[in-house]
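so i finally got all the pieces together for this one. its three components total, 1014 residues if u count the protein bits. some of the lines might not be protein, just check the labels. i wanna see the whole assembly predicted at once instead of chain by chain like last time, that was a mess tbh
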Amino acid sequence: MKLKSLILLGVMILVLGMTSIAFGWSLEEAAKPYAGVTLRFITETTPPSYWVEEVVPEFEKATGIKVIVERQAHPHLEEKALMDFASKTGIYDVFNFDYSWTGKYVKAGYIEPFEQYMDNPALVNPDNALDDFYPRMWEGTMWDGKAYGYPFDSVIQYLFWNKAVYDKYGVAGPPKKPDEWMDTMQKLNHPPELYGTGMMAKRHLSVVCEWLCILWAFQGEFYDDNYNVKFNDENGVKATEFYKKMAEFAPPGVTTWTWDDVSTALQQGTVAQSVQWDENYGSMENPEESRVVGQMRYAPVPSYGDPVSHYGGSSLGIPTSSKNKEAAFLFIQWATSQDIQLRGVGHGSSPTRMSVYGVQELRDKFPSFAATDEAAASTGWRPRIPEWDDMVETLALEINSVIAGAKDVKSALDTSAAKVEELLKTGGYK
Amino acid sequence: MEKNKTKTIIAIIIIGIILVVNVMPFLWLILTSLKTRLDIFAIPPKFFFHPTAKNFISAFTKRHFLPMFYNSLIISASTTLLSLAVGTLGAYSLARFKLFGDKHISFWILSTRMFPSIVLVIPFFIMATRWGLHDTRSLLVIVYTTFNLPFVVWIMRSFFEDIPSDLEKAAMVDGYSRWDAFWRVILPLSAPGLVTTAILCFIFSWNEFLFANVLTAAMAKTVPVGIRGLVTSRAIEWGEIAAVATLQVIPVLVFTFAVQKYIIRGLTLGAVKG
Amino acid sequence: MSLKKLSVFQRFGFWISSTETKFKWALLLPTIILLAIITVYPTIYAFNLSLSDYNLARAADTLKGYIGLDNFRNILKDPTFWSSLRTTITFTVVVVVVEFFLGLCIALILQGTVTGSRIVRTFILLPMIMAPIVVGLTWTYLYQSEFGLVTFILRKLHLMSYATAPLADITSALPALMVVDIWQWTPFLIMVLLAGLEALPTAPYEAARIDKASPFLVFRKITLPLLQPVILIVLVLRIMDAIRVFDIVYALTEGGPGEATDVLSMFIYRNAFYLWGIGKASAISFILLYIIMIVSVILVNLLSRAKQTV
């Protein structure tokens, strides 16, 4: 009898304890042990980062945890991050990592698996619905079945086109197929005030991303399921010739442009359209910076097959060298929460939650929302293997050389293809 | 006489052109530091505008440049002192005495000055990460000594060779020890050399970028790295870059003005007397 | 008096010479030891790294560790390495030649005339005392495609079209970079050559004037040979610095567009800190070191021979 009641008592206490934790969770309470800590957040120079920096004082006020936001552009983001991780100096506590880097950082042991934090009732906010994240974006944080971060920004690349400019020249938009697209570029090209298209053709990750969209639009493939390189086949050559021709209708200097420069050009109305990351929708509508408020429209990249878009999203993770991992987790949870993402719409936030994209008001106000929502399910992924960096290195060089007029398409593609084949072989994929 | 006059006029014109070409970029930098964002992005470029101190203020309040200036100052001063202390002694030894293998030693010291920094950056980075020295000021002090020390040796040697050795002999006859002869007689006489060398070492360290970029992160970051860090593609903050760059160059200008007389000698490692 | 001194020295001759030895080595050893530790050790360390496939972005178990001379073999087979080497050589030759000729001509003209007050000299030296990274960023700003001052002037002079920008065009990027280096270092050559010219003895020139020799002959037979040591010093310094150039490349182009400005230092940096191939980058840096050693030995030999003939 006594044993039974003891067990019952124990179970009751356990249940009460757990429910009290569940009901009693608040950010302030959870952060108490970490008050006074300073977190350093290294991130890309993307609109969502600017938004987070704007609202960070709220987090600091609620928790007493100070957050320093350090922004770096590609590739300096990795330059600084890897310097810290490799030296285990522990400078950075929160790391904004691209989904294509997940494998690389996990394998090198530089980022923390999130299980231990997601299982910790003291840290986890029970209102934080993890299934609210787009499945594809959630997948981007995972490697080998484990999650290493929370999706932070939804960056999908598709076509930004300026309806006012299209209307002005009597061109119907948006183009649905590449040949139509080239046609619009030609018709809308009136240098030097207006150019038919922008390009992010710098010898940089940017040129590879944009080129991938065109490759897929021509139904080309990077490599097939057996890791046979395919991008230098017929479709790849056609796609790259198309990409090269685009430069005829683009402003001077596109060989030094990354997505940031494209954003500026779209904002200033210097280009009629451009392939661009959806997170820049906010800056198009910002009256302080943009001359094209209300004019931008969004569509998939014109394609001969299925609609094409390119995923470039990133997540927030915790470096293994960080000295404030729990506090970092609290920050990450807060920064990717529904509240912060929702309020940030139009201020730079690029939400990764389906619920935010479902808000009708926002869909009406921001035409890109519908486009992103649709694209999110089928968006194209680039390779996530660690060897991707070296592949980018050769592709960026070769494609940039083609656009700059220094190389012809076939030899550039073949050179890269040979290097990629080699990388796949030494990496053990073939 | 006439030939000389025309030559002088041509010379003045040429000096004038050189001055304009050399100073213009810096002048443009100063102007930019005083412009608002709209003025900076103006096409065509504006020469007349309403100046603002906003860039300077935000550089220190928003971008936290004060600790970086402090770091640059401490590091440059420390490496200069260290290099000067050790190198001057070595220079005196090479200048005055015949040593076994001194030609080879001299050449070796000179060769370290010719070392490409990029060769040393990689091992220093790996070593620093393994020994926990990454992002510390002491590390940079040691690393900068790799080029400051040989520099000190070569220049001070040239200055010491200019001082007649009879002076030491006279001093020693008067009862001075070798060390005292050096410390109390020769060293004060080589003061211009010491000052020049100190200033040049300081300038090299103050301006250094590659090592600082790789070996510092947050705590020991120096001004050159901080300036480069303001280049974050999205609408580069040229105003702030110009403001900090202007401030960074001013001490160098002042120092150069001070040691102007010996600077050519310094920069040619003592070979050419300016 | 002097006899007394001599005998004093002679009497204590042996004792002095041994303390002299101790003294001179005591002064020199700290320099040698310190320098050895901070340069020799890292160099050996770097060589070790160059024999491995160490990569900071890969997991330790995917790396092979020691791979012998494989890095060197692969680099010598890599066309991007050779193109980088060509770019570096082109850059070095052009900037040094231009800086030298400009410097010499201007120094000859300024010789014997007023060189200006201290302030003037300081501002003439301004480009080379500015931090190279600041010089690089300033010129990036001047070359900027939309609002850059230099781009604007070039376009007004019809030297550059509106369809391109100095740093974006594959044919103009390297020249644009060279202009920055020439802007930075020509003052150095002017000042050094000027100092050298003004230190020349007047006797040979007097003799030439009496013999009514032509200015060209004077230049070729008197000035040039007498100036040789100074010329060589300045060429050695400039060539060494030009081969190693980094800061301005990093600020202006990071090696692009394409491979147009991919000098060796930038190539190494990219391999080390963007691609994290530490082993490979170390190997390339050793090749660069080897090149510099060869060049410096050749030049220093020329220098010492020139010193002897004068």
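Residues 1-51 of chain B form one domain.
DSSP finds 14 helices and no strands in chain B.
anyway lmk what u think
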